[in-house]
Amino acid sequence: MTDQQPLSEDDVGEPVVDTEGTQIGTVAGVDGNTALVDPEPELDDVPARGSIGWDDPTETHPVDAADLDRVESSDGTTFRVDLGAVNNPEGADTHSEHSSQ
Description:
mainly beta, SH3 type barrels, 6-stranded mixed β-sheet, 1 helix, globular, PRC-barrel domain-containing protein
């Protein structure tokens, strides 16, 4: 990530998109270096929703500022997030293993 402004209350209401440009939520609040993201109601249509653990569409979900890229345009600010980074921080194994032994 390049040099980036820290998160602030001014970011509340800004859209959060995935790397494909699909809006997955809106910044609902800021807690230090964490954006609290309110998921899009239509997020059920986004295949990655379950993979990032956003099972409850009524909850806000924390996303660390390090996982967000701020994109400035004439339309305003958008935050882009790599869902793989949110889902699998530091390369953690997310597959559960079941054994019949």
